[in-house]
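Appendix B. One record, verbatim.
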Amino acid sequence: MPQKIYFDNAATTAVDPRVIEAMLPYMRESYGNASSLHSHGTEARQAMQESRAAIASCLGAKPEEIVFTGSGTEANNLALKGVAFANRKKGNHLIVSSVEHDCVLSSARWLEAQGFRVTHLPVDGYGFVYPTSVEKAIDAETILVSVLHANNEIGTVEPIQEIGKICREHGVHFHTDACQSFGKIPLDVGDQFLDLTTINAHKIYGPKGVAALYVRNGVSIEAWQHGGGQERGLRSATENVAGIVGFAAAARLCMAERETEVIRQTRLRERIVNEILGKVGSAYLNGHPTVRLAGNVNLGFGGLEGDAIRLLVELDRAGIAVSTGSACSSNSSAPSHVLSAIGLNALQARGALRVTLGRFNTEDEVEYLLTVLPKAMERLRSITSVA
């Protein structure tokens, strides 16, 4: 086996060599500022506009509805704060799910400190947001609902089409964080009644430092970054042209290869889940068994939840990279808010092991994981029993 095996694709992915190849000309030759009027700027601007159109087509959107940002976190902040302040004369109420990414929940807390009301929707044991709970939470002051498309920790895919339809019927803007789902499952802003959608490049084998927010024409949104007026004034900053070109290249590849990759990754996922649950009596799966991202496995191990970090270290020593949850929360010792929301106790919510598959993972790598993981658990059990 190779010395390093990477099973943490929900945190970030390797950049596909084909994406790197597409980016190189915009770092070597066509490196101009897209706002410049000379030929270097024109080349950069043309590449950026072609990329904008390509990404828009993957969403069923118009090119002018795509706003490039520096990260998914920035796009989520712009969506929540920008819509809240642009529409505060209409109302002051926002609705978010309890299993959102930390950047959405943190933005919601900040908005509460500014005088907005925020409702946090509960989820069931699989992590589903019920559309009926969204409808019940909407009142006359509601201006925005934000429910992520697929959960970054447990992989559960939310019923955003039903939720979007309810929001549209009530005249409430609907935003989804689709960073984990984009390029992996169907996403169409028209069919799913989306007003705002966050996507990024580094979850789909593109570069870090580039993302986008889809803003449907007619949605009132206020800028939070001011300067030169780039991106229709919604995100002033010199655009990362090479990154944007890479983002578009990555998106095209995902669209072209999605069907075969979903089948392949689902097969690998099911092998991991079935063998671990079959071999390890204390193991349990977090999230829905089938309505989840193809490459997401989130496991708990009864009696070893307190040793999740040690299990991660054991696997890392064997050359296997996994995680215990969201990469953005890896420096926190607090229980996972997602696992807490689905009903796990504080110890269980600290002790999950997340294995996320990607384009470059192989059958042999899965075989190696299935050989190493049970042995690592046995070593930990012996240490725990002696202690």
